[in-house]
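Title: Prediction job returns without error message
Component: structure pipeline
Severity: low
Priority: P3
Assignee: unassigned

Description:
Job completed but the reporter wants confirmation the result is attached to the right record. Sequence as submitted:
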Amino acid sequence: MASTPSINIGISEAQRNEIAEGLSRLLADTYVLYGKTHGFHWNVTGPMFNTLHLMFMEQYTELWNALDVIAERIRALGVVAPHGGSTLAGLASIKEAEQKPAALDMVSELVAGHEAVARTARSVFPLVEAASDEPTADLLTQRLQIHEKTAWMLRSLLEG
């Protein structure tokens, strides 16, 4: 059996593990938000059907693609990325949708979800900064921009 080579990227093993734990929570929140958004895409009804159906599709597609980026960063840090619905749901701060809410309630739930993911991403920054982990900082910055913009766009549907 071949041994695994040690990782020497200028970040200690302890720091890599702490960062990976934070990224695992980000992965989990993203996964639950992806599932919620995709489910809402399937089940939205009402006068805003077409607008929300298409918007939710764009959003769940972006979230799906983000999952791979986050998981691959965890792997680059030398840690196994969590997987499986129950494992990810257990790590997530976002709860899955338990029913089919009305269209605007879906929008409200997704606003809250994107804000939760932004908080999770922001919570990892101190660990990343302490380790001078610029690639993870870049990933977190990109995720924050997307989640904050998406929350703003969804919130605008609730105004007036």
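Comment from assignee: result matches the submitted record. Residues 147 and 158 are 17 Å apart (CA to CA).
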